[in-house]
TrEMBL record:
The chain crosses the membrane at residues 6-29, 41-61, 81-99. It comes from Limobrevibacterium gyesilva. Pfam families: AzlD (PF05437). This is AzlD domain-containing protein. The keyword RNA-binding does not apply. InterPro entries: Brnchd-chn_aa_trnsp_AzlD. It comes from the Bacteria. Keywords: Membrane, Transmembrane, Transmembrane helix.
Length: 100
């Protein structure tokens, strides 16, 4: 197997971009003192990002995303475990896909 130089350059470029984004955030927050409001807003970002990934699939319709989302929601309410909820939702969606 031979590695194409352009592929290697793309991999290195994306690694540098990823490092710059992560490192830049850490650097920025070392330079400023976030207010309590900014800290509260930042605490909600992971949840809003997750919703932004799920909603388009639900809007597009179909049984698979709806069953997966329902299984995720039910498992999260029952167990309060994010890992188990994601696992249950993924398994339910795969199950529907396998039956279809």
């Amino acid at each position: 197997m031979r590695l194409d130089p352009w592929t290697l350059a793309a991999i290195i470029g994306m690694a540098l971009a990823t490092y710059a984004c992560r490192g830049g955030g850490y650097w920025l927050f070392r330079q400023i003192k976030p207010t309590p409001l900014l800290r509260a807003v930042m605490a909600h970002i992971p949840g809003t990002l997750f919703v932004s990934f799920v909603v388009p699939a639900l809007v597009a319709g179909g049984t698979q995303p709806v069953v997966g989302a329902a299984a995720t929601l039910v498992t999260m309410v029952a167990t309060r475990s994010l890992s188990l909820a994601i696992l249950a939702g993924t398994a339910a969606a795969w199950g529907v896909w396998g039956l279809g």
